[in-house]
From TrEMBL:
Gene3D superfamilies: Tetracycline Repressor, domain 2 (1.10.357.10). This is Putative TetR family transcriptional regulator. It comes from Gordonia malaquae NBRC 108250. PROSITE patterns: HTH_TETR_2. PANTHER family: HTH-TYPE TRANSCRIPTIONAL REGULATOR RUTR, MYCOFACTOCIN BIOSYNTHESIS TRANSCRIPTIONAL REGULATOR MFTR-RELATED. InterPro entries: Homeodomain-like_sf (IPR009057), HTH-type_TetR-like_transc_reg (IPR050109), HTH_TetR (IPR001647). GO terms for molecular function: DNA-binding transcription factor activity; transcription cis-regulatory region binding. Signal peptide: none annotated. Residues 11-71 form the HTH tetR-type domain. Keywords: DNA-binding, Transcription, Transcription regulation. Residues 34-53 bind DNA. The keyword Kinase does not apply.
Length: 210
């Protein structure tokens, strides 16, 4: 019974920290919020906060990982039903793009934490798993399109095209953070179309023999 109470208390503190950080980041932006503000709003000691996340960057990863995981699941379902391959790709990466549109600085900070964060941190590892899931979903879209066009898709070609598509998405996030022109969405769609077209003519594919 004592352990059950302790576990519930820990879960309650984690939830309060999560909500406090999420609300403060949304209200003021990641860079403007301090861990002291988060601990005060969550009504926990600063030392307690750091038992759940070792830094403000880890808190950002914790929050965005949860948001992206749920949205990615929905995006994959939409992608499977899409009739156009570029629409399918955009459905998969929509969680990233939506974050860049609404909170460009925080989206860029999330990218930075994923790339340069401490290797052993739990939430960075979870974020990198989400990146891998996203890339896998992109590859699945490309391979489905190749099969639809009567090709036996090359795994290597799909993997490389998937990486290129993912890189284009992250450049779009950087463009939002830099207050780039509003046609960046159209640019991304055209980039994805070029990537798909190049992927489909890759000589490593084989034509299905009926």
């Amino acid at each position: 019974m004592e352990r059950g109470r302790r576990d519930r208390n820990m879960a309650d503190k984690r939830d309060r920290i999560f909500r406090a950080a999420s609300d403060l980041f949304d209200e003021h932006g990641f860079e403007s919020v301090t861990t002291r503000q988060i601990s005060d709003r969550a009504d926990v000691a600063a030392g307690t906060l750091f038992r759940y996340a070792s830094s403000k960057g880890e808190l950002l990863l914790m929050i965005y990982n949860e948001r992206f995981a749920a949205a990615l699941d929905e995006g994959i379902v939409v992608a499977e039903a899409a009739s156009d391959v570029v629409d399918a790709l955009l459905a998969v990466v929509e969680p990233i793009l939506a974050s860049a549109r609404t909170r460009p600085e925080d989206a860029a900070a999330y990218q930075r934490e994923l790339i340069f964060g401490a290797p052993a941190e739990r939430y960075r590892a979870e974020g990198l798993e989400l990146v891998a899931r996203t890339q896998t979903a992109i590859v699945d879209v490309l391979e489905r399109e190749a099969s639809r066009q009567g090709l036996d898709p090359s795994p290597t070609a799909a993997r490389l095209a998937g990486r290129t598509a993912f890189a284009a998405v992250h450049l779009a996030v950087a463009a939002h953070a830099a207050s780039a022109p509003t046609d960046s969405a159209d640019d991304l769609r055209r980039q994805l179309r070029q990537i798909v077209d190049g992927y489909l003519i890759d000589p490593s594919h084989e034509r299905n023999r009926q």
